[in-house]
Amino acid sequence: MKKKILVTGGTGYIGSHTVVELQAAGYEVVIVDNLSNSNENVLDGIENISGIRPVFEKLDCNDKEGLYTLFQTYQGIQGIIHFAASKAVGESVHKPLLYYRNNIVTLLNLLDLMPEFQVKGIVFSSSCTVYGQPDILPVTEDAPVKPALSPYGNTKQINEEIIRDAIYAGLPFKSIILRYFNPIGAHPSAEIGELPNGVPQNLVPFVTQTAIGIRKELSVFGDDYDTPDGSCIRDYINVVDLAKAHVIAMDRMLEDKSDKKLEVFNLGTGRGVSVLELINAFEKGTGVKVPYKIVGRREGDIEKVWANPEHANKVLGWTAHETVEDTVVTAWNWQKKLSK
Ligand code: NAD
Ligand code: WQD
Questions:
Q1: Quick one: pLDDT at residue 205?
Q2: Which one of 1, 10, 176, 182 is separated from 141 by 20 to 30 angstroms, measured CA to CA?
Q3: Beta carbons of 303 and 226 less than 8 angstroms apart
Q4: Is 238 close to ligand 1, i.e. is its CB under 6 Å away?
């Protein structure tokens, strides 16, 4: 029988790509999402790719009774992938309580219910933001967690601590914490992708919206950093590669491939790419110019960070395969579809 997985935030950007990969691996997926940052049409995109329409329940994960009913309705959920969260760093500075509630209560509700419904494990979406500006690059999982620069970043640190404490207290489940670097791109079919809300804060959606003419020009935030070309460096990871790691993590927990009850993995490529290099890769791959100007630094930006992904490479047997050059083309194809 197919194993049943609950995907919270499954109509969102990373969630939708992960649902497709879970289905391809033979899992049965139940999505819960309150559609606060996504759209029910995403289900059509998923079905167009996989031929399977996942079960969907519109539900807020803050609603514990609603979650309880959900676990009763869909008996036999074996694992959870918890994507549901608010993720806009700037907004979190202005609406901290919203972020603490939405990103923390949702996790507490799930962890509370897991033992009663015998859910074996939870994969949690964390972020390289927990490292702040690392002292040593590429950054490994044992690098110190630095004081968070935003309430959003703080919620990820607190979430990790909650999971750690719950596991050490002997609660009967496993967890894998995945620290994503910078997810970009879209499914190669262009059936699903990122749906930015309002003016994009992240680089790649801003690049694609500028290239298609929605935005006049891209502002490059700083060219006076201590990097080869002066612009900031990140580890941009293809969203489908990222999604695949979740399937491996789920297999690992459900098949008891490790004795460890809690594991943490960096999910990145191991390659640092500057803002100017990314713009260049986009222009080369798509043949479309991106008008841009250099402006001052953005407050709170980290100068440079990229992953040491060896732990995930060796232990999970997972490696990011797609290049930034190819991935920005998938983002462009998605932008063209959105703008039709
Ligand atoms: P997203 O906003 O596209 O997806 C999150 C989904 O969760 C949305 O569909 C939203 O409607 C839903 N949601 C939010 N609050 C909810 C609630 N209370 N109940 C039910 N559904 C709720 O974001 P994403 O980029 O796919 O990110 C997924 C996860 O990965 C988040 O936890 C995010 O913090 C984390 N993450 C994202 C990035 C990134 O750059 N995209 C990087 C590191 C970590
Ligand atoms: C990338 C680079 C900008 C926009 C954020 C969150 C982090 C994580 C991923 C979830 C930076 C530059 C950007 C623009 C620019 N999310 N840039 N012009 O800042 O690495 O991380 O998203 O956990 O927590 O903080 O990603 O895409 O915003 O920026 O020059 O219009 O692009 O300065 O160097 P970031 P980003």
A1: 98
A2: 10
A3: yes
A4: no
CA distance 27 to 18: 11
- Cis (ω within 30 of 0) for the bond into 138? yes
pLDDT at 118: 98
**How far is ligand 2, taken at its centre, from the CA of residue 275, in Å?**
9
Give the per-residue pLDDT at 37. 97
Pocket lining: 55 vs ligand 2, CB cutoff 6 Å: no
| Digit-coded pLDDT (tens) for 239-252 | 999 999 999 999 99
Domain ranges of the chain: 4-184+235-267, 203-234+270-338
With contact defined as beta carbons under 8 Å apart, do 267 and 309 qualify? Answer: yes
pLDDT above 90: percentage of residues in the chain: 99
Please tell me the distance between residue 213's alpha carbon and the centre of ligand 2 in angstroms.
21
CB 162 within 8 A of CB 108: yes
Q: Which amino acid, one-letter code, is at 215?
A: R
- Counting ligands in written order, the one closest to the CA of 202 is 2
Residues belonging to the active site:
152
Residue pLDDT, tens place only, 32-41: 999 999 999 9
Q: Tell me how far the alpha carbon of residue 31 lies from the centroid of ligand 1, in angstroms.
A: 13
User: Is the Cβ atom of 220 under 6 angstroms away from ligand 2?
Assistant: yes
Closest-CA residue, ligand 2 atom 11, reads 232
> What pLDDT does residue 64 have?
98
Is the CB of 11 inside a 6 Å radius of any atom of ligand 1? yes
